[in-house]
Amino acid sequence: MTWLKKNTHISILMGVCLLFAGYLYITDPGHVSYAEIQIEHGDSLWSLAEQYRGKMSTEDWIKLVKTENELADIKIVAGKSLVIPVVSNHADPINTIEIARNEQ
User: Fold this and answer.
1) Which of 67, 88, 87, 74 shows the shortest CA–CA distance to 39?
2) For residues 65 and 32, is the Cβ–Cβ distance under 8 A?
3) How far apart are CA 12 and CA 25, in angstroms?
4) What DSSP character marks residue 94?
5) What single DSSP character describes residue 90?
6) Lower CB count within 10 Å: N or C terminus of the chain?
C-alpha cells in the first residue's frame, strides 16, 4: 500500500490503461469480412445493417457501406450490387483447435 502512495503517477497510469483496455474490449466489433450482395426490392441500408452488422452500431455500419461503395447518400437501387461488411461474432477458424481422433 505504501508503494501506491509513493508512486501515484504509476498507479494512475495503470488505471487509465485498464480503463482503455476495457473500452477496446467492449467496442470490438468482432471479425469483419466483406461480401458482395444484390440489392432486392424493399432493401434499405437500415434493414441490411440489422441483418449483417453484428456488434457494430447501425450508424457505423452504414457509414462503412457508404464509404466502401462511394455512395453520396443513403439511396440504394434494387438490382445493383453492394460491397458490405459482414461482422462475425464467432471465433475465427484459424484460432480454433480441433482434435482429430481415430474412431473405430
Assistant:
1) 74
2) no
3) 20
4) G
5) S
6) C
Query: What type of residue sits at position 50?
Result: E
Indicate the length of the chain as a whole number.
Answer: 104
Q: What angle do CA 79, 80, 85 make, to 5 degrees?
A: 125
List, in sequence order, every beta strand (DSSP E) within the chain: 31-38, 81-88
What are the pLDDT digits (tens) for 12-65? 898 899 998 888 877 765 667 888 999 999 999 999 999 888 878 899 889 989
Determine the Cα–Cα distance for residues 35 and 22; give it in Å rounded to an integer: 30
User: At 22, which amino acid appears?
Assistant: G
Are 34 and 46 spatial neighbours (Cβ–Cβ below 8 Å)? no
Whole-angstrom distance, CA of residue 35 vs CA of residue 49: 13
Q: Locate cell 504509476: which residue?
A: 10
pTM > 0.85: yes or no: no
Give the other-Cβ count within 10 Å of 3's Cβ. 8
